[in-house]
Amino acid sequence: MIDYDKILKKAESLGASDAEAVILKQSTTYVSTTKGFVYKLKVGETVKLGLRVSMGKRSAGISAAVTPNTDIDTLVEKTVEIARNSPEDPDWPGVAKGLSKANVKGIFDEKLANLPIEEAINIAVESAKLVNDFHKYTYSMSSGIRVYLTEVTIANSYGEEVSSKASSTFFSIIAGANDGTKNGSYGEYKIFRRLADLNYEDISKLVAQRALDSLEAKQIPTGHYDIIFEGRIFSLLLETLFAQAVSAYNVQIGRSPLKGKIGEKIAGNNISFLEDPHMPWFPGTKEFDDEGIPTKRFYVVEKGVLKSYLYDYYTAKREGKESTGNASRGLGQRGIPMPNNVILVPGDASEEEIIEETKRGVIVSNSIGYWLSNYISGQMNGTISHGYIVENGEIKHAVKGVAFSDNFYDVLKGKLDMIAKELKPAMRMASPMVRVKDSTIAGL
């Protein structure tokens, strides 16, 4: 048991003006298969300590895995010494104060916490078997499940302390396909907070079908198409582009094109972004952020109007504001504000309707390289590693060897014209399927 009160008092006795300790306990169960056979099985527990101290306007942090042999006093002494010799930051407000937590449900699942190792093995093996049995051409390349149970405690030298328990599971599967002359593949991963949402049977069959479809993938001509982004992929694009643009850190250092645009129209009336870390069972659901500040629900963009940036304690104090509860950081580190669970508010179209109303389009089911998109310029691009051509409202065949390109801020202002009903989360953001009109596809 780590005595955080003793750690904080030790830091103050060495001259720290304030200090905070973060204790992270995590248990992990990991099962993975290759070609249907279990090749890795791991069960373990770790305890980690993050410590951050202030020496006036100087600060430093350190993190370490804690074992019975860890000399915590030495860690505290080193952290204080590093802070003493660090450059001053005139804006440093000290460690976060006002620790508390929101009343949030849907964070910890007892069934997932008590999942027997035998059942975890069964999920990994059975998902591989479903792929192998799906079609004579399909086979499992790999499958795996990780179950994480975490307990975090944050305490500061002002006598404040918060703690929370959370569960999550990461499921992944990759299917291959071979018809004797051609090869194809497709993979997906999903993150869940509760066991009931882990529909590995459906995911396995979807992956197998798309691997099979990829055998008939064809290139298409370069041109302008309507692009239909599946929800998970658009969520990942939003994490690369939108999340960075609305971070107060990037705004304050002049990197965000949204600087100075609070209250202005930056998107179409059909677009709203809601920070909602209180949605039960979403990956980003949490009671408090990485500094211990309670999370809150608020609009970042409402009906196209920019309402708020995302703030952590540091960026908020620089502007005389209160943190929005969006601190994101590693143990012992200074963080930056990022989404907890920002959602693109769903529309009223079904996914089927979006496809049916598309005359000439491309569905993006998976992409690589999207992470190179640039939130400063708005350049939104990626290679379509798996997708489908749509003609006159019908899916015709899979596509390959093509890339999409557009400007993200133009997409927000009017090119994103259809939004589906069902949210598909990535990690920090969640989006339904969307359609972007008249985008560029680079193909043949």
Gist?
With 444 residues, the chain is an alpha+beta fold. The protein is 22% helix and 38% strand.
Provide an overview of this structure.
This protein is α+β, with helices and mostly antiparallel strands and 444 residues long. The protein folds into 2 domains: 4-213, 2-Layer Sandwich (PmbA/TldD fold), CATH 3.30.2290.10; 218-238 and 346-442, no CATH class. The chain contains 11 helices and 21 strands. Helix 4 (117-134) packs parallel to helix 5. The longest helix is centred in the N-terminal third of the chain and has 18 residues, at 117-134.
Instruction: Identify the overall geometry.
Output: globular
Q: What structural class do helix, strand and pairing data support?
A: alpha+beta
Helix content: 10-25%
Largest sheet: 6 strands, antiparallel
Portion in strands:
35-45%
The low-pLDDT segments are none
CATH class of the largest domain: Alpha Beta
CATH fold category name of the largest domain = PmbA/TldD fold
- What is the number of beta strands? 21
Total number of helices: 11
Terminal-residue CA separation:
62 Å
In CATH terms, what is the architecture of the largest domain? 2-Layer Sandwich
Secondary structure elements and their pairing?
Blueprint: H1 4-13, E1 18-34, E2 37-55, E3 58-65, H2 72-84, H3 110-113, H4 117-134, E4 138-156, E5 161-178, E6 183-192, H5 200-214, E7 223-229, H6 231-240, H7 242-245, H8 248-252, E8 273-275, E9 298-302, E10 305-306, H9 313-318, E11 327-328, E12 336-337, E13 342-344, H10 351-356, E14 360-368, E15 379-391, E16 394-399, E17 402-407, H11 408-415, E18 416-419, E19 424-425, E20 429-431, E21 434-442
Parallel strand pairs: 7-14, 13-20
Antiparallel strand pairs: 1-2, 1-4, 2-3, 4-5, 5-6, 7-21, 8-9, 8-13, 9-10, 11-12, 14-15, 15-16, 15-17, 17-21, 18-21, 19-20
Helix pairs in contact: 4-5
